[in-house]
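Ticket #4471: structure output looks truncated?

Reporter: J.K.
Steps to reproduce: submitted the chain below (294 residues) through the standard prediction queue, then opened the result file.
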Amino acid sequence: MGGTRNTKLGDFLRARRAALSPGDAGIATHGSPRRVPGLRRDEVARLAGVSVNYYARIEQGEDHHLSGSVMEAIAGALRLNDIERLHLLRLAWPAQVVRHRAGPEEVRDSVIALAESTTQQAVYIVGRRTDLLGGNRLGFALLGLSPDLPSNLARHIFLEPAMRDLIVDWNYWARHVAGYLRMTSVEYPDDPLMTELIGELRLKSAEFVELWDTQPVAECTHAVREFNHPLVGHLTLREEIVRLSRPPDQHIIFNGAAPGSESAERLRLLDSLASSNPAATTLAKAPDTRATTH
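Returned output as attached by the reporter:
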């Protein structure tokens, strides 16, 4: 074992161990009180089939050769899902992670044209730091943001009170965004604006700190989203996400309603309002002047 410590790996393992109850892991406690929540180190070691001392040294971040079978066993012991397992392996072998250059984010004209030509769905384009890089007028109206001002979704979700009223399941969104930032920050460890964004959210949002410290990880995926829009009422939308291969870590997000549904009618009304008076659909009280795409 060398002197280098993999602190990120240890932090993630401890957070996942604390989040897993003995019952979920199939460990009987016989009603005995436990001083700390989650599993103990010896319980994780036993479930993974390794010695307690060996697992403890891994969790303490000591640098040594980790076998794939051991990491898979630990992932299984901690009941990690596919995304969490991928993150664990990236932390275990950071030298193998494909790191991208943290340069300016530019959206291809054809991608912008695709978003703007879509009329039946709310569409917006998100970059690796959750900067809003483009979209159609309905996409901006759905989020209550102005297309003429730079915006960052993570900042708005955690720092803009209007977003809490807009998004029905705000807690889910908040955790998902924090998890996405953590995943992406591994691929862009030298991105100063990513570091600045995370630092700002930790400084200004106690809820972000609480979530961030639980080591969430998440990827953009399809979902059903619900909004309480102040102009058109409740919307139930089906969200589909297309991840671009070049440039990496840009996503086109489509939000559409079931044909003939009340949400579809309300989405058309919102588009009409945005067309006639774009300023009326802006919910944020102040522009997000710190957001940038460079």
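Triage note (M.O.): checked the attachment and the full token line is present. The CA atoms of residues 120 and 268 lie 8 Å apart.
Status: closed, working as intended.
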